[in-house]
Amino acid sequence: MRIRQRRRIRWTGAAKRPPATRANERWSIDFVSDCVSTGRVIRLLTMVDDYTRECPAVEVDTSLGGLRVRRVLDRVAAKRGLPEAIVLDNGPEFRGRALAAWSAERGVRLEFIQPGKPIQNAYVESFNGRLRDECLNANWFTSLNDARRKIEEWRQDYNQQRLHSSLAYLSPAAFAMTRAEMQA
Fold it and tell me: Nearest 5°: phi and psi at 18?
């Protein structure tokens, strides 16, 4: 039997990005996996605004392909507006035609990180660590709907109540509101 060669992804992006200076300048997205009590694997699409540290959405399902990622991005963009750029890794859902077409249609730049360097997507990786510690490891999900409900409750608490030292000890929602008032 023929051994299939792994397709190498060529990286041609910048290794260092300047920090975001306003809301919706840059979002970071990634996937997290967990399972429900039956052993069925669930996937979570996590999204973070790099400036406000808000999490606009966490999409939870058993399978999340490129078309589903597009729909989630459209849903979030309808509420918040489009970002200028999205930082993401080189997963097949992100490298596919569906997301490339979406970004071309909407004029959103996709900034892929260097393969094997998750630190280049640090904002969402930090968020994923908190999600894992405070929600996924702390809860026992009995079903997909139970997981969706508990994760959404945690996301709301993260955005509205949780204080961040990097945001002058404000919650992401309060920080976004004060910045919007300052710019208006």
Answer: -70, 150
Task: Per-residue pLDDT tens, the chain, 184 aa: give them.
Answer: 677 776 665 656 555 778 888 999 999 999 999 999 999 999 999 999 999 999 999 999 999 999 999 999 999 999 999 999 999 999 889 999 999 999 999 999 999 998 888 889 999 999 999 999 999 999 999 999 999 999 999 999 999 999 998 899 999 999 988 887 777 6
Residues whose CB falls within 8 Å of the CB of residue 7, separated by 6 or more in sequence, listed in order: none
- Bridge partners (DSSP) of residue 115 are none
Strand spans (E) along the chain: 26-35, 41-49, 57-61, 85-88, 109-112
Alpha helices in 17-96 (DSSP H): 66-80, 92-95
Helix (H) or strand (E) holding 147: helix 144-160
Instruction: Supply the pTM of this predicted model.
Output: 0.88
Spatial separation of the C-alpha atoms in residues 67 and 142, rounded to whole Å: 27
Using CB atoms within 10 A of its CB, is residue 164 exposed (0-12), middle (13-18) or buried (19+)?
A: middle
| Structure-token pair, residue 60 | 């939870």
